[in-house]
Design brief:
The protein has 366 residues and is of the alpha/beta class. The protein has 2 domains: 70 residues, no CATH class; 204 residues, Vaccinia Virus protein VP39 (Rossmann fold). The chain contains 10 helices and 13 strands. It has a 7-stranded mixed β-sheet with strand order 8-7-6-9-10-13-12, with helices on both faces. Strands 2-3-4-11 form a 4-stranded antiparallel β-sheet, with no helix packed on it.
Length: 366
């Protein structure tokens, strides 16, 4: 596949004023150059407390070897900040308190000790309790994402790109990593720094990190937010040390949730989600970024939340990310996740999350 540039094609307007944000039409796939058909239209911002302006469409690459989805028109890069002025990453991180929270924390530490080797300070009782999450198959993927599938053997320096509230940076530091966050949203960065976290502001290209700076770079639901995912993945690989890993988690357009809810699917998230991937387009993007050693899989992680939010969008036109969920909603969400777990037996690519783990060649023992 041949990558096309982000410049508009002949005859395309560079400004689409009907969106309320400066934007330009994006008719062709950024990965392979193939035209895209309109898949969803009439989309608005359905998650922010103060919705961003505009009406948007989603196009899908017609090449069956790709299938990338993208936002059309595409906001100009200098306009993207408008979509995050009241985004949920502005919320602070409240402490977990109470006996139940401490008990759940012990179970989580036991699971991570057993599965990923984070054993420091974890006693035998917690190790035994770490088997509890396996009783409900939806829980392990949630805990796996809490360390981005990184094993304790790889502990070192970590950069979380698109770190938002900084929850992952804080958690990885607690497990012995030297973790930093990076986000272009000044409010999110200010909140994270106020919580004592090491945060950079801007894009990864702005930072001037030397080559091979980090043992791991993570993008937890970040790659879908950027105008040029190939360039971002390439830069992240450049700053990973030989033997290190780049780990990305992103919404999966082949998921059961997207199949059920269509235009009401939570993860369309216009106008913030600029590109959405399935396994084929993700593999193409990673290969174009220069990687050859990687694996991709899907998980049912947060299928419960996706179901609750997508149902609310279908019923009410929006979903309040920061609102507490009713017991009935939580039960319905877990039932939906259980259904997706069963569906994954029939098709392992129907999970809500798509995960890519990229290994950079080299390092000791290679």
């Amino acid at each position: 596949m041949t990558r096309v540039s982000g410049t508009p094609a002949a005859g395309e307007s560079t400004v689409a004023t009907q969106t309320g944000m400066r934007a330009r039409p994006r008719l062709a796939c950024i990965l392979c150059g193939t035209p895209g058909d309109v898949l969803h239209t009439g989309l608005i911002d359905r998650l922010s407390a103060s919705p961003s302006p505009g009406v948007w469409s989603i196009r899908r690459c017609v090449d069956p070897r790709c299938g990338l989805l993208w936002l059309d028109p595409a906001p100009l890069e200098q306009e993207l900040y408008k979509a995050y002025e009241s985004y949920y990453t502005h919320a602070g991180r409240g402490p977990n308190k109470g006996v139940i929270a401490r008990m759940m924390g012990a179970i989580k530490r036991g699971y991570l000790a057993n599965r990923f080797g984070y054993r420091e300070g974890v006693g035998p009782l917690a190790r035994i309790a770490g088997g509890v999450p396996w009783l409900y198959p939806g829980r392990p993927p949630e805990l796996d994402l809490s360390v981005m599938w990184l094993h304790a053997l790889h502990k070192g320096t970590l950069l979380d790109v698109g770190a938002g509230s900084g929850w992952l940076v804080e958690h990885m530091n607690s497990l012995g990593w030297d973790a930093r966050g990076l986000d272009f949203d000044p409010v999110a960065v200010r909140n994270a720094r106020a919580g004592g976290l090491n945060f950079h502001q801007g894009s990864v290209f702005d930072q001037g990190f030397p080559e091979a700076t980090f043992d791991a770079v993570t993008l937890c639901h970040s790659i879908e937010h950027v105008p040029d995912p190939v360039a971002l993945a390439r830069e992240c690989l450049r700053i990973v040390r030989p033997g290190g890993q780049l780990v990305m988690a992103t919404p999966n357009t082949d998921s059961l949730g997207h199949r059920i809810f269509g235009e009401y699917w939570l993860h369309l998230d216009s106008p913030r989600h600029l590109h959405l991937f399935n396994r084929k387009s993700m593999a193409s993007m990673i290969t174009m970024a220069g990687a050859s050693q990687f694996r991709i899989f899907s998980t049912c992680r947060d299928a419960n939340g996706v179901f609750v939010a997508s149902r609310a969008i279908r019923r009410h036109g929006r979903f309040d990310v920061n609102a507490s969920r009713s017991a009935l909603d939580k039960l319905a969400g877990r039932a939906a996740q259980a259904a997706e777990i069963l569906a994954l037996v029939a098709n392992p690519w129907w999970g809500e999350d798509l995960v890519a783990i990229v290994d950079k060649p080299g390092g000791p023992g290679s």
